[in-house]
């Protein structure tokens, strides 16, 4: 069994029963990614099986939707009812909670520096689950308007004894709409990207090196700072979308670091700076000057990433 633990994951999964608000949010975007996919008959997934408490669910059908809010990612929706790109919202609106399950897949960074496809959550019934670890998929391919892959035999959702495994080949439909995840307070902040000027800072994570072109600082307490570093410029919104993101928590007794981004997939560990890694912050008018140096081993749950820090950058201070 191929099970390559990648990193901690936080996968927000909707309830598997497709609620009315899901249908309304997707109005106008239920058309297929291609005319062929729209008109194609639903394909039974003959090599994929699912069961609840040992009872087989019977023939399964499915569709795949790109999830642009999560980088290179898909939401795979399966049902005991026939599904096509053109018919899925109508079919799912009428499906019972025991007739639908969803799986999130996305590109992820392994500790050895390779990119792989992994699944990070299974939702079944009226609720969702998110495994604490991403699990590599033995096979995953996106080509010719279809998404094909293989799930380990024991992928599942523990409550109720739901398990799924095997191979699938699904039509790729139009992307999911990008959700509005920011809370009300965050709407007062600007999401306009702020280009870091004069930056010489660089970060390497598992051999993936990037120049820091995005740097913002949030005040935490009287003397503390939370500084976000990304390759592309980002704004002062609480959301900082990126394939890789470094968050430094400075100003307290113990400087700490956290990795995030699409490739790390969410709420990883906040750990002390270790090894030779150093991050020194000096507040100036409306900004924080940051100096980086050294290297460390970053231990997330079940995975260890090599990190290197270097250079300087001035991070704009965001308004509270």
Task: Kindly describe this structure.
This protein is mainly beta. It has two domains: 5-171, no CATH class; 185-317, no CATH class. 5% of the residues lie in helices and 46% in strands. It contains three helices and 23 strands. The strands form three sheets. Strands 13, 14, 15, 16, 17, 18, 19, 20, 21, 22 and 23 form an eleven-stranded mixed sheet that branches. Strands 1, 4, 5, 6, 7, 8 and 9 form a seven-stranded antiparallel sheet that branches. Strand 6 and strand 7 form a beta hairpin. The longest helix is centred in the first third of the chain and has 6 residues, at 20-25. The chain is elongated and about 65 Å long. The N and C termini lie far apart (48 Å).
Topology:
Layout: E1 5-8, H1 20-25, H2 35-39, E2 48-52, E3 55-56, E4 61-66, E5 73-79, H3 88-93, E6 100-109, E7 115-124, E8 127-128, E9 133-136, E10 139-143, E11 146-157, E12 162-171, E13 202-205, E14 208-211, E15 214-220, E16 224-230, E17 245-250, E18 256-260, E19 270-272, E20 278-284, E21 287-293, E22 295-300, E23 303-317
Parallel strand pairs: 15-23
Antiparallel strand pairs: 1-9, 2-3, 2-12, 4-5, 5-6, 6-7, 7-8, 7-9, 10-11, 11-12, 13-14, 13-23, 15-16, 16-17, 17-18, 18-19, 20-21, 21-23, 22-23
